[in-house]
């Protein structure tokens, strides 16, 4: 009888543990189960860098931050004021730049904790709480911050204990190294202009105004780039192959400046019909989360000879989150074969092509988007029609 009772108690305890594990798995699986059907959109959201501000804001400030830095702490209220006063013009993107790279220790632990908060969709509340607290957060303090930020505490603790976000933080640290970030805070304006250290609100106003109103530059002085026909073969193109002027465009479907230059290039094509050829190349910027996937979708449309209508749709919907369901919906709206399109997108067969074009762009001097080569001469930026028109006329006169 005693043995039977022990078995029943043991069985009951086992069931209790199993139920707890199932509940925990349900909470964690959308983020960490590699074979979960829900993984795609969830993991995309998780690995999208935390951001706040208007999604399609013309000024994107990418910040590399160290939570234990006093200067970063001083910058926090200033940037909050910037976002309050420029709600439609500025988007702030956060990247981790801890001084320590040892998981579970020092500032790296704090960054892991913030990434765990991001996994629960509570990054900014946790971020603000870190900067608003007195002193540096110890391990126990992180639990307190998690509770105050509305996080599920058991999930948060499991995330920290198992170092689920270690790779995420180290990816950002590697990106900081690649961009030659040597101190924090470091900011990049629209992926290009680099600013280091504390900036006053007045300084930020000047920086933002400059980004909102870029001054057209003189034609570039770098040597013209020669694009062989094999470089352009198979790329989406408009206009005759033997046109005297060829525009080779490197662009990003998530870039507001690229959306701005698209109608300018279209107007050039109409006004110089038969004299201009426009050739597209992909150049999704790393600061635009999900951009590579959108570019893959455009190649799936290209397979069905619908690249340009799909291109137009993507720019018309700039700022709309673009998960796979949305990308397929656009294909259906444009009367593509949706089954073929969906199979293409799910296969990710154009991923290597997109990455190859990013490398190609870097090799020919592309540092930002849009970048348009006019008979090999690089024009970087969304300049007005008159600017491009003058350059095209000059090229035609030199025939």
Question: What would your notes on this structure say?
Answer:
The chain is 53% helix and 12% strand. The protein has helices at 2-32, 39-47, 70-85, 106-119, 123-132, 139-148, 153-161, 166-178, 201-212, 229-232, 256-271, 291-303, 307-316, 324-333, 338-347, 351-363, 385-397, and strands at 51-53, 59-65, 90-96, 186-189, 193-196, 237-238, 245-251, 276-282, 371-374, 377-380. The protein is globular, with a radius of gyration of 25 Å. Helix 1 (2-32) packs across helix 2 (39-47), helix 4 packs antiparallel against helix 5 and helix 12 runs antiparallel to helix 13 (307-316). The chain has 399 residues and is an alpha+beta fold. Helix 3 (70-85) links the parallel strand 2 and strand 3. The chain folds into 2 domains: 48-212, Glutaredoxin; 229-397, Glutaredoxin (3-Layer(aba) Sandwich). 33% of the residues are buried.
In short:
The chain is an alpha+beta fold and about 400 residues long.
Characteristics:
five-stranded mixed beta sheet; 10 strands; disordered N terminus; globular; alpha+beta; Glutaredoxin
Q: From N to C, what is the helix and strand string? A: HHEEHEHHHHHEEHHEEHEHHHHHEEH
Poorly predicted ranges: 1-46
Widest sheet: strand ordering: 1-3-2-4-5
Report the portion of residues in β strands. Answer: 5-15%
Helix-residue proportion: 40-55%
Summarize the helices and strands and which ones pair or pack.
Elements: H1 2-32, H2 39-47, E1 51-53, E2 59-65, H3 70-85, E3 90-96, H4 106-119, H5 123-132, H6 139-148, H7 153-161, H8 166-178, E4 186-189, E5 193-196, H9 201-212, H10 229-232, E6 237-238, E7 245-251, H11 256-271, E8 276-282, H12 291-303, H13 307-316, H14 324-333, H15 338-347, H16 351-363, E9 371-374, E10 377-380, H17 385-397
Parallel strand pairs: 2-3, 7-8
Antiparallel strand pairs: 1-3, 2-4, 4-5, 6-8, 7-9, 9-10
Helix pairs in contact: 1-2, 4-5, 12-13, 12-14, 12-15, 14-15
């Amino acid at each position: 009888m005693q043995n039977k009772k022990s078995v029943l108690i043991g069985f009951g305890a086992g069931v209790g543990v199993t139920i707890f594990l199932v509940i925990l798995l349900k909470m964690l699986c959308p983020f960490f189960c590699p074979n979960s059907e829900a993984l795609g959109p969830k993991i995309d959201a998780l690995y999208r860098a935390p951001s706040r501000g208007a999604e399609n804001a013309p000024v994107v400030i990418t910040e590399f931050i160290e939570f234990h830095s006093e200067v970063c702490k001083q910058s926090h209220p200033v940037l909050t004021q910037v976002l309050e006063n420029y709600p439609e013009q500025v988007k702030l993107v956060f990247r981790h730049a801890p001084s320590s790279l040892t998981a579970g220790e020092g500032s790296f632990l704090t960054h892991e904790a913030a990434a765990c908060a991001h996994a629960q969709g509570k990054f900014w509340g946790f971020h603000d709480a870190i900067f608003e607290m007195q002193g540096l957060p110890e391990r126990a303090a992180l639990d307190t911050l998690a509770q105050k930020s509305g996080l599920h505490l058991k999930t948060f603790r499991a995330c920290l204990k198992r170092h689920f976000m270690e790779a995420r933080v180290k990816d950002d640290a590697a990106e900081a190294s690649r961009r030659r970030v040597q101190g924090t805070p470091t900011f990049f304006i629209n992926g290009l202009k680099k600013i280091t250290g504390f900036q006053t609100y007045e300084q930020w106003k000047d920086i933002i105004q400059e980004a909102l109103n870029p001054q057209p530059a003189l034609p570039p002085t770098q040597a013209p780039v020669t694009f062989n026909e094999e470089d352009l073969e198979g790329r989406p193109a408009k206009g005759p192959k033997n046109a005297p002027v060829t525009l080779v465009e490197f662009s990003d479907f998530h870039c507001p400046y690229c959306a701005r230059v698209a109608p300018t290039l279209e107007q050039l094509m109409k006004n110089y019909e038969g004299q201009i050829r426009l050739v597209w190349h992909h150049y999704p910027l790393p600061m635009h989360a999900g951009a590579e996937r959108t570019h893959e979708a455009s190649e799936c449309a290209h397979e069905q000879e619908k690249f340009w209508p799909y291109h137009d749709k993507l720019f018309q919907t700039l700022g709309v989150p673009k998960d796979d369901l949305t990308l397929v919906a656009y294909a259906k709206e444009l009367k593509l074969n949706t089954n073929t399109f969906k199979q293409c997108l799910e296969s990710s067969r154009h991923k290597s092509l997109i990455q190859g074009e990013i490398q190609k762009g870097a090799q020919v001097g592309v540092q930002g988007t849009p970048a348009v080569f006019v008979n090999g001469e690089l024009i970087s930026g969304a300049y007005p029609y008159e600017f491009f028109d003058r350059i095209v006329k000059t090229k035609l006169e030199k025939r």
